[in-house]
Amino acid sequence: MITLSPEPVMMGGVSARNHLVLAAGVLGTCASSLSRMLRSGAGAVVTKSIGPEPRFGHPGPCLVVLEDGLMNAMGLPNPSKQFQDELSALSGEPVIVSIFGGNPEQFHEVAGWFADKAQAFELNVSCPHASGFGAQIGTNPDIVKACTEAVKEWKKPAWVKLTPNVTDITSIGKAAEEGGADAIVAINTVRAMRISTGMRRPVLGNKYGGLSGKAIFPIAVRCVYELYEACSIPIIGCGGVSCAEDVIEMMMAGAQGVEIGSAIVRDPDIFSHICKDLYAPDGISPREIVGCAHG
Amino acid sequence: MITLSPEPVMMGGVSARNHLVLAAGVLGTCASSLSRMLRSGAGAVVTKSIGPEPRFGHPGPCLVVLEDGLMNAMGLPNPSKQFQDELSALSGEPVIVSIFGGNPEQFHEVAGWFADKAQAFELNVSCPHASGFGAQIGTNPDIVKACTEAVKEWKKPAWVKLTPNVTDITSIGKAAEEGGADAIVAINTVRAMRISTGMRRPVLGNKYGGLSGKAIFPIAVRCVYELYEACSIPIIGCGGVSCAEDVIEMMMAGAQGVEIGSAIVRDPDIFSHICKDLYAPDGISPREIVGCAHG
Amino acid sequence: MLLMGYLPGKLWGVPMAEGLPVTVTITKVVKESPGVTTVFFDREFESCIGQFVMVWVEGTDEIPMALSYKNAITIQRVGDATTRLVAMKPGEKLGIRGPFGNGFRLHGKILAISGGAGTAPLLRVGLECPDVTFLMGARTADELIFHKMLTEKCDVRVATDDGSAGFHGYVAGLLDEISLDEYDTIVVCGPDPMMRSVLSVLQKRSSLEKSQFSMHRYMKCGVGVCGSCCMDPDGLCVCRDGPIFSGLSLQNSELGKYHRNAAGLKEK
Amino acid sequence: MLLMGYLPGKLWGVPMAEGLPVTVTITKVVKESPGVTTVFFDREFESCIGQFVMVWVEGTDEIPMALSYKNAITIQRVGDATTRLVAMKPGEKLGIRGPFGNGFRLHGKILAISGGAGTAPLLRVGLECPDVTFLMGARTADELIFHKMLTEKCDVRVATDDGSAGFHGYVAGLLDEISLDEYDTIVVCGPDPMMRSVLSVLQKRSSLEKSQFSMHRYMKCGVGVCGSCCMDPDGLCVCRDGPIFSGLSLQNSELGKYHRNAAGLKEK
Ligand SMILES: Cc1cc2nc3c(=O)[nH]c(=O)nc-3n(C[C@H](O)[C@H](O)[C@H](O)COP(=O)(O)OP(=O)(O)OC[C@H]3O[C@@H](n4cnc5c(N)ncnc54)[C@H](O)[C@@H]3O)c2cc1C
Ligand SMILES: Cc1cc2nc3c(=O)[nH]c(=O)nc-3n(C[C@H](O)[C@H](O)[C@H](O)COP(=O)(O)OP(=O)(O)OC[C@H]3O[C@@H](n4cnc5c(N)ncnc54)[C@H](O)[C@@H]3O)c2cc1C
Ligand SMILES: Cc1cc2nc3c(=O)[nH]c(=O)nc-3n(C[C@H](O)[C@H](O)[C@H](O)COP(=O)(O)O)c2cc1C
Ligand SMILES: Cc1cc2nc3c(=O)[nH]c(=O)nc-3n(C[C@H](O)[C@H](O)[C@H](O)COP(=O)(O)O)c2cc1C
Ligand code: FES
Ligand code: FES
């Protein structure tokens, strides 16, 4: 297998300790769990998505584990502005604050709360199961562009996280780029549903949810590849990454780094384990492989 | 587990021997393999998609097996009009002819070749990896409607098979319904890619392919559920079905029957095995569970 | 011998329901006290004592519950889901995910200390382990649960806040009469303030290293992913790293000080 | 003991590459005859004799090839992919999927019958089995492959169409001098017309039930899904139900009459 040389990593304006970033919404609600992930080897962490008002999330079940992934409909639970307190405990750490809102003004407001503490923002315009938020606005290029611009007013790096639940993901990627995004994160979860045949009802409290994990890796690779052909800003690959080989594959598709979420379910120490396999003193430079599959 | 009573099955104008239909493109190019599937327990079979000209398909690799599914880019290889000869050998059997074209006229022409032999047509407006065909037209509701109307001129039942690679599958489902479709088949494969890290290239000759099998089951269930809420014609569930429990789940989401493709890779006798688990003399009527998850 | 390069293994052709809730049918409902009810179902879950399940009350919510028996949960009514649960009848269905979490490590002579409905997760300790002393607290005699059943199996001592049974005062008070050195394992479950006060006593009496506390935090996923049950300062997940924690590891924790609610907001 | 309701098993954290082509590096290229070349690579594939692999020539195509050795394929140049293959140099890479298909069932005294490049899939029979008679046909002496190597291991008899070596005529003609009753297993590989004529001889001489034919058909998936390799009249997949078929099962088949091309059109 290919190994990478351990070099300082700068992706989308964020200086990270390695190429592996904790994905939004996974162990991301408190400072203590975010630090834990950094301690265990994450190169940077993205927080739970924070919105304009506190939310308690959807009724349960909120998550089920499938053989090849997870399906969740958390419903964007978050402490809103009070998340400032958690962030204080993380000052100086590579923390990207994920934010969401229903319109550019809300994005602007929420970003403002964290503008002095976050290393960067990640715009969640892609959660597939919260009405009025996430993918409901992330399927419209104009809104995506406007939200990106609104957040960029705070002069911080802004990553825009895209939904795969669109006919053409590149049109949304280009909108983010036009709005001034520093990077595109692809992808958020794939809209999905499972039904309990015993209860004769969808298993998630919200009925619809988002599929993540191994099942969506080939979809995520495809999206990264498509975006790499269409956009010129950096891409962070996300979706189903669970071993070093997957990281290399994402990079070859065009990703500068990856985010990892669901794989935590199998191995809470996934970051240190992947680092061990991925980096070696005689490894090659990541530059050599990012996008190399495009020939 | 729930079992079904073995009753005569009529779905979308097709009288089938049971609720399990061989999906298009799987062992569907010759009469002999189609009969084999019928002998081994398929309630009906859909042929390989037949188009206006013979096609030899994409260069290989055309298919790879993943742990939780398949990824393929066959490229719609087909013998075109000469498929008439194969069909003759299947007269009287529950055979649905899958057809494709680049526009309504071509759909009309191809359907005409088989109008006297097919029990029904399935319109492939959803293959995600053939330029000018499939999903390239199946993402446009107006074209889907027009193609459906064109085929319906032959006064045969017409199933319209949808792609999940759209922002809103219900808009396409409704277009098919307006065009006079007798049933909707959901879903075709999900656009995907894998990269060979050894070769530093996408593994499929066509680069992009379609993901099928277990990985996409939660996506397929979601699409069936959404379509059931939006449309009133019958729905045939397709995508990742590999056991009797999956059939029940698809039915609860709203499917009248299911198509099965990729699961053949694991078990060529999948139809007889599912039948054994699915049907029992004291089983319940399928009517009792179709759509029951909608509450 | 047939070697196939592509064999996808056990993944295909088997029901995919493994991580989905298992549907169980209620067989018996037993009222343990005015506020506490045990609901039995038609399936036993292989589990370690101390593990929990996520209980899906269809149409309402999914909530964490200890398995009081391998085939039962014991519910204290506090809100929407628990109110629906205690009102359920035999024949009705629940969805069960799990069991999840770690379990108690039980050996030697055991001291079990429970407060209120916290007796439920410890019930199997009293019923299945050979040498158990059970200290049980409740606000009032009426609210003591499993008292009779446990008395038949072990040495039970009772404390009530109002003195209506046993010792008049908190269960931690019962510890004064106990010689902690005699015990190999100390297990504790109850409301946060009660557990913090037991922790303080054990700390003073240098018995923390043999103590294990069953923690409760707001849970959504149950499998260590969503982060809603994380505790300060180590960011451990109660659902996965716990719910059982050694007393030692809890000394400097948030226990008894605050916890986070469903939105992640700190609450006292 | 830790029981977890959700354990997704071996699926997570392991490379997902199982069914993807394995990348191999070419180590040696050997010209066997003017049109036939053996390409060795740096990895052995555990396989039954008779199984095949799908060989990915990046940028061109993926084609089926028998493993002539566990770490080599032997290629007859016929078109784009094979032309690129035979021109490859050590250090270049190929992608290999498989091995796929069944294999020969080999026991007792074996008669191997090959035509042209059909010797390649039978090479391991001659090299690895103890008691083999090898009948080998080619158009001309130049095109005999593996002749020397096999002569060291077994009783080789040769036929050439032009009489430049051995018997003057088709390989089926060599059967006249063979007492079929002596053999327990008969394996055959070669062009369709050659295999049909061998089949006819074996049929006439009542030896079909101990015969096994290695079939070739157009293949795209290699795993029994796409249907491009199906044979009439039973709809069997050469890639999965074969490529080895008993002579009995081929009697009434399309063998020697027609096959289908990449588009599914019948060709002679
Ligand atoms: C590991 C664990 C084991 C438990 N075992 C038992 C048990 O055996 N018997 C028992 O009666 N109770 C048990 N509980 C507590 C039980 O989960 C809550 O009482 C229940 O969730 C309340 O739900 P509700 O809808 O009735 O209340 P709500 O009206 O929703 O809320 C009332 C209070 O209950 C708590 N709560 C609500 N939802 C949750 C949740 N998803 N996770 C955690 N707490 C929640 C919160 O403190 C909340 O303020 C356990 C909790 C945990 C974490
Ligand atoms: C099970 C099996 C084992 C084989 N083993 C060997 C071997 O050990 N050595 C060897 O030299 N050849 C072998 N072949 C034949 C080999 O696959 C073809 O010669 C090769 O595919 C030609 O590819 P091309 O691009 O050079 O030719 P093309 O120009 O693409 O086509 C030339 C002819 O080759 C055949 N062909 C092309 N593509 C395929 C395909 N995907 N599948 C099957 N046939 C195809 C067709 O008959 C076609 O008309 C085997 C075939 C099969 C089915
Ligand atoms: C439990 C859970 C919660 C999530 N919450 C968020 C969120 O708040 N914001 C967001 O942008 N993505 C969220 N996601 C999506 C992930 O960040 C990630 O995009 C997705 O899970 C795919 O990556 P993975 O396969 O590595 O998990 C969540 C995913 C999971 C499983
Ligand atoms: C090898 C292969 C070929 C296919 N060819 C076609 C086709 O020609 N026309 C079509 O409509 N769908 C085609 N499909 C899609 C399937 O019919 C089906 O929609 C998809 O595979 C999802 O179902 P499954 O998970 O049961 O395979 C093909 C799928 C595979 C795997
Ligand atoms: S409940 Fe989700 S991490 Fe514990
Ligand atoms: S090559 Fe696809 S079925 Fe044989």
Report low-confidence residues of chain C grouped into runs of 5 or more.
1-17
Strand pairing plus helix content of chain C: what structural class?
alpha/beta
Major sheet description of chain A: 8 strands, parallel, barrel
**How would you describe the shape of chain A?**
globular
β-strand amount of chain C: 25-35%
| Widest sheet, order of strands of chain C | 10-9-8-7-11-12-15
Pathway (chains A, B): Pyrimidine metabolism; UMP biosynthesis via de novo pathway
GO molecular function, one term (chains A, B): dihydroorotate dehydrogenase activity
Catalytic activity (chains A, B): (S)-dihydroorotate + A = orotate + AH2
Active site (chains A, B): 127 (nucleophile)
Describe the structure.
Chains A, B: Substrate binds at residues 48, 72-76, 124, 188-189. Chains A, B: Pfam families: DHO_dh (PF01180). Chains A, B: Belongs to the dihydroorotate dehydrogenase family. Type 1 subfamily. The complex is a heterotetramer, with 2 copies of chain A (295 residues) and 2 copies of chain C (268 residues). By secondary structure, chain A is α/β, with parallel strands linked by helices. Chain A has helices at residues 31-39, 83-88, 104-114, 135-138, 141-152, 169-178, 217-230, 244-253, 270-278; strands at 9-11, 14-16, 20-22, 44-46, 63-66, 69-72, 95-99, 120-124, 158-162, 183-186, 190-192, 195-196, 201-202, 209-212, 235-238, 257-260. Chain A has a single domain, classed as TIM Barrel (Alpha-Beta Barrel). Chain A contains 9 helices and 16 strands. An 8-stranded parallel beta barrel of chain A has the order 3-4-7-8-9-10-15-16, surrounded by 6 helices. In chain A, strands 5-6-14-11 form a 4-stranded antiparallel β-sheet, with no helix packed on it. In chain A, strands 1-2 form a two-stranded antiparallel sheet. In chain A, helix 3 (104-114) runs parallel beside helix 5 (141-152), helix 5 (141-152) runs parallel beside helix 6 (169-178) and helix 8 crosses helix 9 (270-278). Chain A is globular. The two termini of chain A are 20 Å apart. Chain C has 268 residues and is α/β, with parallel strands linked by helices. Chain C is globular, with a radius of gyration of 20 Å. Chain C has a 7-stranded mixed β-sheet with strand order 10-9-8-7-11-12-15, sandwiched between helices. Chain C has 5 helices and 17 strands. The model of chain C is unreliable at 1-17 (pLDDT under 50). Chains in contact: A-B, A-C, A-D, B-C, B-D, C-D. The complex binds flavin-adenine dinucleotide (2 copies), flavin mononucleotide (2 copies) and FE2/S2 (inorganic) cluster (FES) (2 copies).
